[in-house]
């Protein structure tokens, strides 16, 4: 007797519902998908921004001296001799590699734009953590180098290449110890503002690898 054959399954995979592009359901799905895409994009940008901020504030953290604080002169030196010149070697290489009569590469243009923009920010005034202030430095030493919100506790000062002998408090800092502390004599408190365009700097050249991580690879 021949074995009985197992009947073949006649079930078919369910087809995905297709809605007419002008239908109300299609419009609802489109709006939901658009919202999800926007939220995902915003979350990605927020994560990247916080990560970049943590890297940049890390430069200040490593710029803190083993003991005491920095002088205003030392803070300016870090900016002018390290921050503003960190792309100089790459620029020289790009210019040397460019043949005579050829246009500048995308990388060279980007490096020049960064250098010009940051030099102008330094000239007009840039906000940095107040590493000349003992209470601020004491707080900064406790930072875990990842939590960006912690930086809001610190006091910031605005310094400029136009007047390297003076600084103004741009952010008092949210920690109670800073609100009770007395500003250094170098600070002209009459010029305190609430400007929030903080520009960050890195410490001396021994932190070159960290500088490259912050800026990321250039095309």
TrEMBL record:
Annotated family: Belongs to the TMA16 family.
GO CC term, one of those recorded: nucleus
InterPro entries in alphabetical order: Tma16, Tma16_sf
Domain of life where this protein originates: Eukaryota
Compositional bias of kind Basic and acidic residues: 16-25
Bias type Low complexity, positions: 1-10
Protein name: Translation machinery-associated protein 16
Family matches, as Gene3D superfamilies: Translation machinery-associated protein 16-like
PANTHER family, per the entry: TRANSLATION MACHINERY-ASSOCIATED PROTEIN 16
Annotated organism of origin: Suillus plorans
Annotated spans, Disordered: 1-47
């Amino acid at each position: 007797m021949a074995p009985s054959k197992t009947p073949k399954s006649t079930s078919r995979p369910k087809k995905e519902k297709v809605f007419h592009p002008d239908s109300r359901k299609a419009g609802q799905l489109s709006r939901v998908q658009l919202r999800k895409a926007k939220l995902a994009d915003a979350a990605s940008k927020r994560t990247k921004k916080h990560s970049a901020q943590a890297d940049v504030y890390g430069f200040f953290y490593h710029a803190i001296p083993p003991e005491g604080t920095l002088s205003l002169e030392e803070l300016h030196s870090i900016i002018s001799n390290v921050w503003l010149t960190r792309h100089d070697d790459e620029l020289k290489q790009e210019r040397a590699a460019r043949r005579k009569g050829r246009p500048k590469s995308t990388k060279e243009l980007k490096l020049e734009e960064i250098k010009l923009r940051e030099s102008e920010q330094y000239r007009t005034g840039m906000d940095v953590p107040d590493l000349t202030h003992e209470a601020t430095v004491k707080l900064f030493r406790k930072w875990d180098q990842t939590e960006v919100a912690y930086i809001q506790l610190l006091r910031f000062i605005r310094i400029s290449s136009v007047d390297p002998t003076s600084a103004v408090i741009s952010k008092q800092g949210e920690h109670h110890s800073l609100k009770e502390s007395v500003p250094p004599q170098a600070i002209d408190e009459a010029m305190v503002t609430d400007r929030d365009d903080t520009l960050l700097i890195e410490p001396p050249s021994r932190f070159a690898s960290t500088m490259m991580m912050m800026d990321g690879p250039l095309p």
